[in-house]
Amino acid sequence: MRCIQVVGYHRNLEMTEIPIPIPTDPYDVVIKIGGAGVCRTALHILEGQWAEKSRVQLPYTIGHENAGWVYAIGSAVTNVQRATR
Length: 85
Ligand SMILES: [Zn+2]
What we know:
Layout: E1 2-6, E2 14-17, E3 29-37, H1 40-46, H2 51-54, E4 60-61, E5 65-73
Bound molecules: zinc ion (ZN).
């Protein structure tokens, strides 16, 4: 799957391929992203302003304001189910 990553502070973001995540915890829910917003938090990470406090490890896949469809669920998840599309 494609993702956008911070590969270095004060550098352009890079689009890269990473493995599709799979649930590793019984309560995991994997979402197929349909859209992702970029907020000031993302820019703070890119600028390295929280590098010491957040301990972000680079490369870092950016995006935390996402919307999409349930792609996979862990064995204990009961309140959502895999989307049919
Ligand atoms: Zn945000």
